Amino acid sequence: MSSSIENYSVSLVSGGKLQTPFIYNHNDIEYTSKYDLLNNSFNFYTDSDRDYSIIPFNNMIRLYCINTRQCMKTIKFNNNKVLEQIFLNSSFVENTIIYSNVINIDQINFIELVSKNGKIVYVPLDRRIDYDTDIKALDIEFINNDNKNLLITQVLNDNIVLLEDDSKSNFYIGTRINEEDSVKIVIKKTIAKEQLITYSWSNNKSNLLIIKKSENDIKRQKESKKSKKNNSQATYNTVDCSIFTTNQIDIEEPILNFTDIEINTSDSISKNSKIITQSTISNDLSKLAIGFASGVIQLISLSQADSTTTTQFLKWHCDSVLSLSFNSNSTQLFSGGWEKVFVYWDLSQGSIKKNFIPRLNGVIVSIVEPDFKENYISVLLQHVDNLTNMDLEFLLLNKSDFKSKLSVNGPLINFESDYLIKNLKGENIRPRSAIKQKTSTNANGYNNDITIRSFTNSISSPEILYFPHCNGINTYDLNKNESLKYIQLSKSVEIGKIRNEHEDIIEPEILKIENFQIEHNNIKYEFLITLESLKSQQNSVFANTQKKANNEISYTLKFWKKSINTESNDWILQTKIISPHGVENNQLLGDIEIVDIHISSTNSNSHLNKHIFTTDKYGGVKKWAVLEIPNNVIDENLCWKFGLINYKSSNNNLITENNFVIESLDKSLVLQSLGDRLYFLDAINMNSILKFLQLDSNIQTMQLNKVNGNIVIMTKIGLLTYDLIKNEITNGFDMYDEFKKSLISQDSTTSNTNKSLVLKNGLELKNMKRLISINPLTGDITLVVNNILSRKSMIYFFDKDLNNIILKKEHDSWISCMKWNNFNNFNFIDINSRIGIISDNISNSNNNGVVIKQEDDYDLLKPLNTANTVTEFVSDTNKKNKKELEMIIDTDTVLDSRMRLNNHTFLPLFNSVNSNTMVDTVFDTVLKMLK
User: Fold this and answer.
1) What is the chain's alpha carbon radius of gyration, rounded to the nearest angstrom?
2) Rounded to 5°, angle at Cα 180 from 179 and 185
3) CA 284 to chain centre
């Protein structure tokens, strides 16, 4: 055992996602989520003539200097035992930071953090924090809560907090009482959620606006229920508005009441014109604004003297208004919504004038003018094109020219399905559009896939990670812990304000990316290959009359070269291949689905040895390479030409989701996995099958170990290593019981997540390629197994020959992808967007996280040594009375058995199987051996 192997450590070093308090609602008629105003969780303060912003993540707090745009301090929760216990060792939702503020106690600055589950933590701002630093933390005591479990949703100021119970049946207003060693919240007012429409507060947090259903609307809805009329309960004709002052301790009674305010935004009968999505009130109580799903804003002028109202309608948006906010002196109204357009309305003149900034990066879910400086506007964006994850971006704009002063977001990642966010993470999927319908992301039916679309590392700078995201690539710096740039490789059509464009536009998606290096004239060039998919538009001339839009997908393969004339991460398109594997039979639209991309594993950077393989769902394989290099490679207007050099034709009678290929070290063979067989193809004539290896179950993935030239194969029940020289399987591990932990049934996705999840029989793991990797320096093999029930993952380390499990380490959440980073360690990312390092050198400079505890119990896995002449069985050793052995041939239909045959015992018998051997002969041999 090498010394480097003994030093493997697992650390969380980077990543994370922006965290903001929000109320999530999965109701079908909910067109928006209520985000709190940004100056509640994203706070600001000034020190020594510099402005700072506090940005909360799900795994850390970061302080940015607005003047220099630099991160000045990072406080990672896993670097301190108190922060780790409060913010990391609880559920996804309850540990949310819902308030942050800088306070001074005894001449020391602290960041005050309030969590959703009622914890207050005081983090020293100017002192170094290590793991054993004692950080003050208090539990909040709730008074008058009627024994209900309360969760804090917003902290408005030192006096007022807003709460809800865990059943979300009531909305509460409470007052905060600070004592020396405790904090109490006294419930002052309770509002039934069935009466509440929306609520918001003024920019200075002095005024709280509550909008409720009017008595007339409540009666109308009761009558429609009795008559069983299909009227949406989200639409309103009149509403009641109550305004509370948060500066007074007694907040039970509102200071202003406006009843039966008529909602009449449009002559249209569309329900969108009556669905309220957002509201706000001005600091001076002179105006309130209500936004609707139709895009109309109702501006209401309030008369405090006689409680009368005057209404104006502001029309520009064509979809849901998701954010509204007045400026500090109530002369401007800011609005934003689904069109990704920031609009500001000038209310100071007699006639209202509007201006706008077109097309920000994401849908605008919150806008506020920070109260510490009037020359800034903070905006919260959400990338709604990603249906599988909640990607937030914090943007701070200069109010004078609306240029960005600060932009912060975590790694932007796409999961293979939306199973996680729908069933387990408790996050809002995205605010709904009023006119653009959500499409399904699970065309292949892999609802329980918790992996992301595989990332890759820059070859020249391994600390740079590339994440495929929607129609672009998010470039992330692991060391700086910052997103560097969003590279839009697929140019999306610019969406204007025209309703039809906004409704019908379909953008391409990048499904897979891989990168490689080619050396020419002693200069190294980095290339990127992307696979794009584009769904056909349903209103197309060629649209299928049966509306099988999910089948009508076109694929495009693109080769990009990294620019050498600039330090920016610009990529220049070299070759574009449309429908690389052809089209489906008898279809006007719809290409053959591409399953995988594989870059040949070679240490040579010569373009003659660099091959790119693509495989399709019908067993077809195509091999691509450089066909032509421009005479003047310095001229970036001249492109490298990539093209097809070899192929194996598809078989339309075969359909598989796991079609992988690899090249042997000497490149004389191409190995292809189809079902439970490993085929050996001639590298020159790939349609010529030299032989095949019959395995015990379907192959999930395979990789070439460049250290010893062996093939590492993962089947449905175990891990094997195949020696190409000896032409035999040399070692294996039966991991059937471990793999079962990471599988769930399709039925459990719609059940209550608190119930025990049912294991799935199929054991088809589309995602296993992303959960196994090989160290090319030592040949060590790492494998991730996610435990669905415990919500943890285990990382197994095997030696290069698969003789032993060297060690295993546990991670506190599921791992979604792991890859060797072309330097000296592995990178992985978990479901919470946190990036980690698996390093074989504990003193590695990048490894500044906390080493995860090592586990030494290897009894779960039984290694197979084919040198043994005696057949061994995996059985219950505690049973003294030997029972009759039940031989299990079909492992897919038997989930549990005390006495299981180790299937790898029979693998050497299959080495000589060829196409002329009858299957019965194999099992006759097995039975003879058992006798």
Assistant:
1) 30
2) 25
3) 41
Q: Tokens 């035999």, residue?
A: 728
d(CA 26, CA 427): 10
CA–CA dist 703, 684 (Å, integer): 21
Neighbours of 21 (CB within 10 A): 23
pLDDT at 115: 85
Which ranges of 751-863 would DSSP assign to H, the alpha helix? none
Domain 37-187: CATH architecture, name and number where available: Beta Barrel (2.40)
Q: Are 492 and 383 in contact (CB under 8 A)?
A: no
Contact 390, 422 (CB under 8 A): no
Tokens of 342: 């920031």
Structure confidence at residue 830 (pLDDT) = 92
Instruction: For residue 849, give both structure tokens.
Output: 């996280």
863: its two tokens: 């290694």
Give me the amino acid identity at 412: L
Helices (H), 463-498: none
Task: Give the pLDDT confidence of 306-358 residue by residue, as tens digits.
Answer: 777 888 889 888 888 889 999 888 899 999 988 888 998 998 877 788 888 87
Q: How many CB atoms lie within 10 A of CB 750?
A: 9
pLDDT beneath 70: ranges in the chain = 1-7, 21-39, 90-94, 221-235, 249, 264-270, 426, 428-429, 437-448, 491-505, 537-551, 566-569, 586-589, 744-766, 841-931
Q: Which two tokens stand for residue 878?
A: 């505690």
**678 contacts 695 by C-beta, under 8 angstroms:** yes
- Could you tell me the strand order of the sheet in which 669-674 lies? 659-663, 669-674, 677-682, 689-694
Between strands 136-143 and 183-192, the pairing is parallel
Pairwise CA distance, residues 852 & 810, whole Å: 7
- Please report the pLDDT score of residue 588 as a whole number: 65
User: Across the strands, what pairs with 560?
Assistant: 528, 573
Q: Report how far residue 353's alpha carbon sits from residue 861's, in angstroms, rounded to the nearest whole number.
A: 71
Sorted by where each begins, the domain ranges of the chain are 37-187, 508-672
Rounded-to-integer distance, Cα 828 and Cα 817, Å:
6
Give the pLDDT score at 568. 63
pLDDT tens string 125-140:
888 888 989 999 998 8
- Which string of DSSP letters, residue by residue, matches 293-356? TTSEEEEEEEETTTTEEEEEEEE--SS-EEEEEE-TTSSEEEEEETT--EEEEE-SSSS-EEEE
What does the DSSP 8-state code read for residue 591? B
Q: What is the pLDDT of residues 611-620, one digit of tens each?
A: 999 999 999 9
368 near 38, Cβ under 8 Å? yes
Per-residue confidence (pLDDT) for residue 714, from 0 to 100 = 92
Distance CA 334, CA 336 (A): 7
- Listed in order, strand segments (DSSP E) in 66-159 are 70-76, 97-105, 108-115, 119-124, 136-143, 150-155
Tokens representing 671 are 């190995």
Tokens of 2: 């090498």
